[in-house]
Amino acid sequence: MPGTVPLFVTLLLLARHRRAPSRRRLTALGLIVAGVAASAVLTGGPGGPGGIAVLLAAGFVWAAYTLGLARTGLDPVGVIAIVALSSLIAALVLAATGAMPSHLFTGGIDPGAWGAYALVQGVGTGLLSTACYVVAVKHLGSSIPAAAGALSPVLTALLAVPLLAEPLTPGLAVALALIATGVAAFALAPAGATQAARNKGIPASDPPPAPNIR
User: Fold this and answer.
1) Which of 177, 76, 170 is nearest to 132 (CA)?
2) Whole-angstrom Cα distance, residue 97 to residue 87?
3) What digits encode the pLDDT tens for the residues 43-52?
4) What's the distance, CA 97 to chain centroid?
């Protein structure tokens, strides 16, 4: 799913700002998508088309969130507060209604697991990763952070070798190499241009962020 985010960001920028990516970035996107598709085929489960559709929808939402970060005037603390509060409310509603079965509210998890979950999911994902992503989007625009996010399956697979003793097969290694190569090529490639910028002969970049209104 993270590999689809730069693709959706590119499509949304094209639809909203008529900014077509350069050929080098298109090639890099192709490498990323090919690597993600290959890794999904090699490691995927029996989720079927329904599961793939859900993941694609998640990738689209993440892309829209990335573009929103580039335009918002909120600072990282404000973004974290909104994301954390909305996620907490949604999780409580889903757990209370039974739509999201969870052992967190049934007493079936020991305190050590509670603490580890709070540290990883709360501090790590909820605070640190959100803050880093906001800062990256504010300084680099939306396209490069979205492409860099495709490295998450690469890092996950590499960390799973020593931590979970999961094997890194030759096929999966090739797929991850495609993703890493595509991300690097995307970051080094020049951006495309909007139609207005092309008419004026001015190279384009990501849309400028909104002023930070406090």
Assistant:
1) 76
2) 15
3) 666 666 677 7
4) 28
Q: What are the tens digits of pLDDT across the range 82-107? A: 988 998 899 889 888 888 877 766 76
Do 63 and 146 contact (CB within 8 A), yes or no?
yes
Q: Which segments within the chain are labelled E, that is strand?
A: 19-20, 193-194
Separation of alpha carbons 83 and 12, rounded Å: 22
What is the pTM (predicted TM-score) of this model?
A: 0.72
Q: What gap in Å lies between CA 160 and CA 67, rounded to an integer?
A: 31
Residue 71, both tokens: 């335009």
Question: Rounded to 5, what percent of the chain is helix, strand, coil?
Answer: 75, 0, 25
Between CA 29 and CA 15 the distance in angstroms is: 17
3-state secondary structure of 142: coil
Residue 59 has pLDDT above 60, yes or no: yes
CA atoms of 85 and 59, how far apart (whole Å): 21
**SS3 state of residue 15:** helix
